[in-house]
Amino acid sequence: MTRKLIAEAIGTFILVFFGCGAAVLMGAQIGMTGIALAFGLAIVAAAYGLGPISGAHLNPAVSLGMLLAGRMRAGEFLGYAAAQVAGAVAAAVVLLAVASGKADYTLAANGLGQNGYGPGYLGEYSLGAALLFEFVMTFLFVTVILGATQAGAPGAMAGLAIGLTLAAIHLVGITVTGVSVNPARSAGPALLAGGTALAQLWVFVVAPLAGGALAGVLHAAGVTRAEG
Length: 228
Hints:
By secondary structure, the protein is an all-alpha fold. The chain has one domain (2-220): Glycerol uptake facilitator protein (Up-down Bundle). The protein is built from 9 helices and no strands. It has helices spanning 2-54, 60-68, 74-99, 107-110, 127-148, 158-177, 183-193, 195-199, 203-220. The two termini are 29 Å apart. 52% of the residues are buried. The model has no long low-confidence stretch (mean pLDDT 96).
């Protein structure tokens, strides 16, 4: 179990550092498409590099979906979620240290790629839009993950399918919330950025967990699971 938790922490570090790092360090150069690809490619890297150890959930919403789909125990879920948040916080700390090496960088002005909504944040979408987007996209994301990793699925392609799905979600909704679909990914930057990001963090915990839970329940019921 220790090896699995370490793998989850490292994998989530990769996701947050690559994805949020692309936004903070290279956003002006690569744009939103580049940021979307960074998040997707980070998932691919972690899935193939660490998936054989822990399954590379990298996301409490994914782990909750796995729990409710009957693929892991409650104790494992809690350990995975803690490791994922720890990896995300570590990535945010390292990203802040790197970004602070630029003369004109300030945490208040440039941030850490934190999620948000409302006035002053990207497309300035409403709370309702943010909740709906995060719920629906997490449901779809976890449904794809459960399907791509179920028995009988082409296992060698799972990491690519999952990574491309995350990239597509970002292409659709970066301006809505910055795209979370992952409470750990949101927690890392928010805990360091504080202020509005921390006050709004509940949205990126509640909506993704609800979406992941629904995906797990439907998979367990056989609605989105292959027969046999």
